[in-house]
Amino acid sequence: MTEEPFRWLEAIANRRDYVQQQIAAGSPVFAVSLETGVLLLGVGSGQSKVFEIFDRQAMAALGHPADIERVRQMLIDAAHLEAFTRASADVNVRRLVSFGLSPQLKQSFEQVFQAPFLITLLLAEVAEQANQDVLVQVNFDGGFQIQHGGVMVATPKQEQVASTTEWLKKHIDQKQTPERAALILLLAWDALVSGQALPETVDVSVKLPDALRENLNGKVVEAALLERKSTNVARYTPRIPLLTG
């Protein structure tokens, strides 16, 4: 196969289509920087979507549950190795992705005789200031994007990422409580999974609109906050159930 570049490129293209089809029904996940910390949120049907990685790091993912667990364990192992060889304070998301996760995902994706990772994920790291928080979106092929603060969305519907991100930036204030920010994230989640337009106005005075509660249809809203001001070394605080359908 490697002696025939054209066939290899064709196989990679087919492989990309295959992965995208497999994760097409995945439930979007979100990360947003607030004054109180970094909020991660996902909606699942019994499978966890939000996880603690290390003291100041966490992830939210969509895809095959087995692959999510594999990636979670890879990140935890890498973080603890970093802490052992350096120091706990030196563990950071940028190194975990650049030197650990991304190369492994890329290699797996390009090895056409091995099963690829069926996953897209967000990683978050809380800092002293919201504009210093690190958010990373990692694709199944190892490609990734890093930004400081703000909002990040991971969804199979890539064409909707830009408009959803802009809508969330417009409606989420850093000073909002995690509960109110979570409600706005849920409205975006509802629009993404239902294929409807994002609402022009947001009423956060209602805890959980009836239409949204109906669309959740028993699914579990899972969220966690990486707390900015905490006396604990580990900043990960589960907020379950933040809201439930």
Describe this structure in words.
By secondary structure, the protein is an alpha+beta fold. The chain has 6 helices and 10 strands; from the N terminus they run H-E-E-E-E-H-H-E-E-E-E-H-H-H-E-E. The N and C termini lie far apart (49 Å). Helix 2 crosses helix 3 (93-110) and helix 4 packs antiparallel against helix 5 (178-194). The strands form 2 sheets. It has a 5-stranded antiparallel β-sheet with strand order 8-1-2-9-10, with helices on one face. A 5-stranded antiparallel β-sheet has the order 3-4-5-6-7.
Q: Can you give the mean pLDDT? A: 90
What is the strand arrangement across the widest sheet? Answer: 8-1-2-9-10
Poorly predicted segments? none
| Beginning-to-end CA distance, first to last residue | 49 Å
Helical fraction equals 25-40%
For the secondary structure, the number of strands is: 10
Radius of gyration: 18 Å
**Total of DSSP H or I helical runs spanning 4+ residues:** 6
* Strand percent estimate: 15-25%
Biggest sheet record: 5 strands, antiparallel
Categorize the overall geometry. globular
